[in-house]
Design goal:
With about 450 residues, the protein is α+β, with helices and mostly antiparallel strands. Strands 3-2-1-4-6-5 form a 6-stranded mixed β-sheet, with helices on both faces. Strands 7-8-11-10-9 form a 5-stranded antiparallel β-sheet. Strand 20 and strand 21 form a beta hairpin. Helix 6 crosses helix 10 and helix 12 crosses helix 13.
Amino acid sequence: MLQDVDQFIHKHHLINRGDTIVVGVSGGPDSIALLHYLGNVALSFQLKLVAAHVDHGLRGKESAEDLLFVKHYCHQEGITFEASTMDVNHYKEQHHISTQVAARECRYHFFKEKMEKHQANLLALAHHGDDQVETMLMRQVHGSISSGLAGMSARRPFSTGYLIRPFLCVSKEQILRYCSDHMLDYRSDPSNDKDDYMRNRFRHHVLPFLKEENPNVHKRYQLYSERMQDDEGFLVELAKQHLEKVIIDQNDKFVKMDNKAYQCLPIPLQRRVIHLILNYLYRGNAPFSSIHIEDLRLMLDSEHPSASLNLPLKLRAVKSYTTCYFSFETFLQPEPYTYHLPLWGSVETPTGTITAVPVKDVPQSLAGNDLIVEKHLLPAVVRSRRPGDRIQPKGMIGTKKVKDIFIDRKIDRSERDVWPIVEDVTGQIIWVAGVTRSEKATLSARKSQLVHLHYEKKTLT
């Protein structure tokens, strides 16, 4: 076992001379073996070790005894000891999460605090090869995203440095033998013997079957994990390079994506672009799975120009023609508005600004975002659309629904309810800003007292 761990540490550059390592120690055989191993190499590597223990407050007297056991071991070995007793049940109720997730979050928060306190650059955890097999199998069953299917990494960024797992190359059996050979006492958690948790069911019923087929199955899974992590890392970096072409606009609650640019990407990169967007909006605390990513990909790939999808924590994806908006529902709800447009003034709407300036003559060139009207049609009102809105487009005898104009001009569905509509003094719609002019806004032969209306569109955020 020692040779396997030494080679694994060297291969993945886990430990360097002079490192300060916080070691997560529960008191079980895995963490006691890890602390003992690191204690043996501490002198040659000039390591500073800090043992960190968390009493989750879930097993009463037993968990309190675990704390005392680890404290006594550290005192005997001259290792700095840090401990905390936490109310995991209270944390669980506060955050509406499972007991296991609550315990993990409390534990990792404590580890982070101790790394900062001791200026540690490493957190060492005792996950072993059998844990890796169980993790990869569970994630396959649950439909994890691609990076999750690769299992636990031997080294990843955490707090002020890195989280390392030196024992991923060895099995539980090897660790127990190591404890026996070195006469190491350890604590046992009775809950590990029950089938209450999924991991325990995999451990008791699935892993033994795999071990019968191949006693070294943990090594095969670890090799598979490393290859998958290499492949995934390459694809994610490639996806990041394409993000600039795909993302039109963004802030901390909103991302607007160019669906045309997205569709040009190969499917593996599409999946990872979606993952990067979701990870950004969820702040890395990802409550989504591969199912959500596939649902999004299928929605974006469909021939229907408009569609929407509700995601966890009230995040919503809205596809509208060539764009897709990712935003939280509370951020998407449009508010009706009505503004009076003053001469020599402007009003700001959710999609842009409309300015009114008197002019003497009609400019030689007018863009679609400009409208020249006669002053007698003013003062104007700028408002959001209402049910049943109609306009008489320039050159037409009859009227047309504003709703149909939005569809014909492929205005994003998410912008339609807040797009500015301009009414004249009589309440007639004379302009769907930047989209359609009304016949009623046609200039008379006199062209006296003109006003230039200009619509400066902005990105909806």
